Amino acid sequence: MIMLMCTAISLVSVKQIKSHTKSLVQVILLIENIKILIEYKNISITEIFNIVLSSDNYNLLFFLVEIKKGLNDYHSTLKNVFEDKNLFNNFDDEDVEYLKGFFSMLGTSDTDGQIVNCNLYKKLFEKKHSQLVSVEKSKCKCTSTLSIGIGLLISIIII
Questions:
Q1: Radius of gyration for the chain, computed over Cα atoms and rounded to the nearest angstrom
Q2: Do the beta carbons of residue 10 and residue 146 sit within 8 Å?
Q3: What is the pLDDT of residues 134-154, one digit of tens each?
């Protein structure tokens, strides 16, 4: 019974890590797309959010919709959005700080400064993503080993 509970806990943990990993991939894609929009189209924050939110690529980034609702007062909206922890369930505290840093710098400098900001945060999230992928692989191996062990144990008990 204890092994079964350990396996269940491990499976939940792996599911959370996978959601976190998928969310980080979406953030990396988002930052790259924002960079492209700034670099080649030189458009406003409102237009950037309209384009970004027209895509289905960011379905795990719940906070984007809330940011878009308050674009008239962007920095005040950011403060309120980042206080709502429910919008960041797939992220840890470090991710939220990175996101806060990225979005607070968005629109505050010239095009070159915005591109540097995008590059910096993209690298930070890529590093975090690669660390998370290695954790995910090791936990998946552990979970599959536990599952096989429990399967064998149950088979022996039944026989």
A1: 20
A2: yes
A3: 877 776 655 555 555 665 556
